[in-house]
Amino acid sequence: MPPRCDNFLWERHSVVVGRCDAVMGKKLQLDEIDREIVLQLRKDGRMSNADLARHVSLSAPACLRRVKHLEDSGVIRGYRAVIDPAAFGHSLEVFVWVDLDASNREAMLAFEDRVSQMEEVVECHRVFGRPDFFMRVLVRDPADYEDFLTNKLIGVPLVLRVTSTPSLKKIKTEDHGWSEGALG
Question: DSSP assignment, residue 180?
């Protein structure tokens, strides 16, 4: 069995960029240099501070202060290695929609708790309307997905309906939905 990876990301090294809507109750203002720092680190999260400083035309100490401020304020939430799931034998990505038989808070929380413990689920969202949840599941092959579906997901109390669609080909992936335009 391959080692468990909690978060599969899809490009090279990445920077996990947080929302900067509210930091300590006020809106955080990012200037052009801050935006460029974030964009450069998104391209290469292992870039040295000296290289980053050259890219953004700052001294190394000034650049490091800005990066530290972006980290402390929650704009940059962390750095991760980006893993190719196929290297661990996980080459089938399945999109899954789940309807629950109840729409009360306890049912939602119980479902979220169970799903958060399923290593095959690499992403899960509670959504408005129906279905109740959207998930991205990563498994080895169709037999592995069938095992996940029948022995784990359908066994969760209050699951009413599951709809699944396998991905044929990934066309585009942005780190956590952020594009250069989102930082504008």
Answer: G
Examine the domain organization and report whether 75 and 97 are in the same domain: no
Residues 31 and 77 grouped into a single domain:
yes
Question: CB under 8 Å to 15, separation ≥6 — which residues?
Answer: 38, 41, 42, 45, 76, 78, 79, 175
Coil, strand or helix at 74 = coil
CA 167 to CA 75: how far, in whole Å? 31
Q: How many angstroms separate the CA atoms of 82 and 106, rounded?
A: 35
Tell me the residue range of the domain where 110 lies: 85-166
Domain check: are 92 and 67 in the same one?
no
Q: Say how far apart CA 120 and CA 143 lie, in whole Å.
A: 13
Condensed to tens digits (0 to 9), the pLDDT of residues 152-180 reads 999 887 899 999 999 998 888 765 545 55
Return the ∠ at Cα 85 (arms to 1 and 145), rounded to 5°: 65
Task: Say what the pTM is.
Answer: 0.68
Nearest to 113 by CA among 142, 133, 131, 96: 133
